[in-house]
Amino acid sequence: MKIVSYNVNGIKARLPRLVEYLQEEQPDVVCLQELKSSDDTFPEGDIRAAGYGAVWHGQKGFNGVAVLARGVDPVERQRGLEGEPEDEHSRYLECEVFGLVIASIYLPNGNPQPGPKFDYKLRWIERLTQRAAVLLAEERPTILAGDYNVIPNDDDVFSVKAMASDALMQPESRAGYRRLVAQGWTDALRARHPNGGVWTFWDYQAGAWQRDAGFRIDHLLLSPAVADRLAEAGVDKAYRGREKASDHAPTWVRLR
């Protein structure tokens, strides 16, 4: 079973690339982020025509998350995180499909830092951590998949110096991510590639793709009940190089 996290950076702009990916790779579940689409304009028909059911939590112009499943409709469990009732950002969607609990996550970027956007990012990580603890207590096979906007380690980035002042690499961001993982989650890509050097994102600016100047911010965290089924984890890097592609590549785990 192949479970994918894919920040599409605008589902309408990238729809041909997404459908292409679904048809060529035929993943079982795909968690999408950064839809930049309202609920009403989500391209459900195109997704269904490609053979996938979908649940989505949209927002016009930015954010937005979805869970797609091959041949079935995921069952929604929760949208949004508790803790800030005034938070209207569409960044969290939790579903049940194929016997798994799967959340699609689009964590705040946090730039510029310091400032209110960075403070929001840190609060959001804490709210996610609280929800993750509840999910772990259920002792179900659970995957938290998404764009975390956190570079966890120095070997997860092409240049520490280049990203030193970015919110993605601040000590507070990394500490929040570490606290989350330390609950008992397995960072699947890290587990399979312990020496780092695996990128999931390449900026559109400064020839980052051509220079392979990327970093790892898309993560799939596995609960103990599913971690022992981990066969493989990787990045479908070639899709980043296609015409009008997202700046993220599909990042995945394969389960026994």
TrEMBL record:
Keyword terms of this UniProt record: Hydrolase, Magnesium, Manganese, Metal-binding
Gene: xth
InterPro entries per record: AP_endonuc_1 (IPR004808), AP_endonuclease_F1_BS (IPR020847), Endo/exonu/phosph_ase_sf (IPR036691), Endo/exonuclease/phosphatase (IPR005135), ExoIII-like (IPR037493)
Cofactor binding note of this UniProt entry: Probably binds two magnesium or manganese ions per subunit.
NCBIfam families: exoDNase_III, xth
Organism encoding this protein: Sphingomonas adhaesiva
Lineage of origin: Bacteria, Pseudomonadati, Pseudomonadota, Alphaproteobacteria, Sphingomonadales
Protein name: Exodeoxyribonuclease III
Site positions (Transition state stabilizer): N149
Site (Important for catalytic activity): D218
Named cofactor requirement(s): Mg(2+); Mn(2+)
Active site: Y106, D147 (proton donor/acceptor), H248 (proton acceptor)
Family membership noted in the UniProt record: Belongs to the DNA repair enzymes AP/ExoA family.
